[in-house]
Design a protein that fits this description.
Layout: E1 9-10, E2 15-19, E3 25-32, E4 38-40, H1 46-55, H2 68-75, H3 80-83, H4 91-107, H5 118-128, H6 138-162, E5 166-174, E6 180-189, E7 195-205, H7 210-214
Antiparallel strand pairs: 1-2, 2-3, 3-4, 5-6, 6-7
């Protein structure tokens, strides 16, 4: 069909109005140029976009037809996510993500191997808008976990040194393998009269020597 005689299209020409036998255009029906499917058109491109997303997800078309969505989009302020879309993740943000991943793995008791999950990488690529983002290596995550542990331990030690008095409590339990464990927790009030409680350690004990373990 000659370009001059081609019916007007919607969504960058992905849909055209249906042509009647007499040569006129039926403005209530459109035909998908990708699959020749016929759809009802009610002056809104919502159903057309739904068809593209469901049947032709790679089309990735934005509405260029007679819709108020275009005017609304032009007036809407660009978000920071949209502004950074497609831009490489900065060094500072990459470092922050690595620390957060290490913290999540440690505090949620996740296996280190989760850092090699392709799905997790896809999620972070979509969240950051950087399709080239790569997850950190195992050794990097392990090193960050050790660094975070050392920093947290140092902060706890400093609180105990500054405290005038501390209280210790012990929790004793037996595992399904009939092994005995003892956990010692310290409680203290700081200079701002804020209560802090944190575990000092967990150790495996012999039941006949439980008193000695507590001591």
């Amino acid at each position: 069909m000659d370009a001059a005689m081609k019916p007007p299209g919607l969504l960058q020409g992905k849909f055209i109005f249906k042509k009647l036998p007499n040569g006129n255009l039926d403005k209530t029906k459109v035909v998908c140029t990708l699959c020749n499917a016929e759809l009802v058109y009610c002056r809104s491109s919502s159903s057309l976009k739904y068809h593209l997303n469901a049947k032709h997800p790679l089309a990735n078309v934005e509405d260029a037809g007679p819709s108020t969505d275009v005017a609304q989009k032009s007036r809407r302020q660009t978000t920071m996510f949209e502004y950074n879309r497609g831009k490489p993740v900065s060094t500072a943000l990459s470092d922050k993500l690595t620390n957060l991943l290490a913290q999540w793995i440690a505090t949620s008791c996740r296996p280190i191997s989760v850092i090699e999950d392709d799905g997790l990488e896809l999620v972070l690529q979509a969240a950051t808008g950087d399709p080239s983002y790569k997850l950190p290596a195992r050794r990097t995550i392990i090193r960050r976990i050790h660094d975070q542990y050392a920093a947290e331990k140092s902060a706890k030690d400093e609180k105990m040194v500054e405290a005038r008095c501390v209280a210790l409590t012990g929790d004793h339990w037996t595992s399904v393998n009939n092994d005995n464990y003892l956990c010692v927790t310290v409680h203290l009030i700081d200079a701002s009269w804020e209560l802090h409680s944190f575990a000092l350690g967990v150790m495996k004990t012999e039941e006949r020597h439980f008193a000695e373990a507590c001591a």
